Amino acid sequence: MGPLKGVKVIDMTTVLMGPYATQMLGDYGADVIKVENLDGDVTRLIGPTRHPGMGPVFLNTNRNKRSVALDLKKPGGRDALLRLIQSADVLIYNVRPQAMARLQLGYDVVSDINPRLIYTGVFGFGQDGPYAAKPAYDDLIQGATALPALMAQTGDGVPRYVPNALVDRIVGLTAVGAICASLVHRDRTGHGQRLDIPMFETMAGFVMGDHMGGLTYEPPLDKGGYARHLSRDRRPYKTSDGYICVIVYNDKQWASFFQATGRDDLRSNPVFSSFAGRATNIDTVYAELARIFETRTTAEWIDLLTTADIPVMPMHDLESILQDPHLVSTGFFPVVDHPSEGRIRSMKASARWSETPVETMRLAPRLNEHGSDVLKEAGFSAEEIASLVRGGATLAALNSTTE
Questions:
Q1: What percent of the chain has pLDDT over 90?
Q2: Mind giving me the DSSP string for 256-284?
Q3: Which helix (H) or strand (E) holds 243?
Q4: The CATH classification of domain 237-314, taken from the options 3.40.640.10, 3.30.1330.40, 1.20.1250.20, 3.30.1540.10
Q5: Tens digit of pLDDT for each residue in 2-14?
Q6: What pTM did the predictor assign?
Q7: Kindly report the CA angle at 254 between 234 and 229, in degrees rounded to 5?
Q8: Do 327 and 27 contact (CB within 8 A), yes or no?
Q9: What spatial distance separates the first Cα and last Cα of the chain, rounded to whole Å?
């Protein structure tokens, strides 16, 4: 199942950025082998849990993977990983490259073992600049790419991070695309390659693509920034009984809005009557919309705007989104039976293929749940696996007293 069926991925990543990317590869059909240390991915510990080591962040970022626990600082653990790499198509890690080199797992080492391997690093900074060895986290990269400064401009002047691991997920998505492109190249040429996806550069392009503005030109025409995005009234609009998300954008939508609301006075106002006028006076336009939307209930506005074909959506919270009629209809949040956690709410892959449909084959694994199977597939005998357990390079198989 899935367009990546037959692709084997060695996933050495932890926390969110890398695991999010490899979950998508698994969703698309790849065989993802999650290599964890003997304590497991730290996200196993985050959030409310029914059982230790199976927290919601982990459950929602590690489906369609198999788990094997290896201590890569022990010779036996490192050697086991190298044997797994021999038959892999992709290796992905999210520590700094310097840490991979200390483990003697740099590209120069693994490419000799498997020249067809796509050796993928998702980490903080490009390796040809002064930040190469710096650690990086989502919050740091948000700050370094101006997101808190932009948030301050649109609110009360206080810089704030976006309340989402935005950087980790965007860089993870970027990694998925880059890996798939590298697999196409490998299939055409027979050659693997090293692939670096730095967080800082990825997000600098992501943010500045919107906000470069007059800084695009040399000399600059202004101080940058996309005026519509930075308007303080670009926000969910307060209605008489709640909030609503509306965008009245092009001339056709504005004409429909004037007619539906009976605001012919705005139709003849140059501030509202043309795209150029609205763009130049966006703060005035959004402030007037905010006043208009307070005059009716949310339900009244949704009915009126939907009839007028003006883009409108409800403003959900974390609970109400689970009951959204579209997501309910498409089955986006299926409740499934996890082997150890019981009934849990999962999420479907959003992409759809007509010829290679995807489905969840495995829910997030317990630590080392598939360790014995993965090692046997790599050619390890039962005695070799038992020796790795005795040497502290891996854990005993689940529900086993012999390994």
A1: 96
A2: HHHHHHT-HHHHT-HHHHSHHHHHHTHHH
A3: strand 243-246
A4: 3.30.1540.10
A5: 999 999 999 999 9
A6: 0.94
A7: 20
A8: no
A9: 32
